[in-house]
Specification:
By secondary structure, the chain is an all-alpha fold. The protein is 46% helix and 0% strand. The protein contains one helix and no strands.
Length: 56
């Protein structure tokens, strides 16, 4: 996979994530930001920030 293909894939995934948040808000109420975990972890995206593996 080229860097360009990877960037396109990441952009598509970001768009899908945003649409999912909007759909959840429509179905369950509230604001789309209520369903965005990135707001709960300092506006970081799991794809952009390393996550510990629990010491395994």
């Amino acid at each position: 996979m080229t860097d360009e293909e990877f960037d396109e894939l990441r952009e598509e995934m970001d768009e899908q994530r945003d649409q999912l948040h909007e759909d959840l808000a429509d179905d369950l109420g509230g604001d789309s930001d209520d369903y965005d975990v990135r707001h709960d972890v300092g506006d970081s995206s799991s794809s952009e920030e390393a996550v510990t593996d629990g010491g395994k």
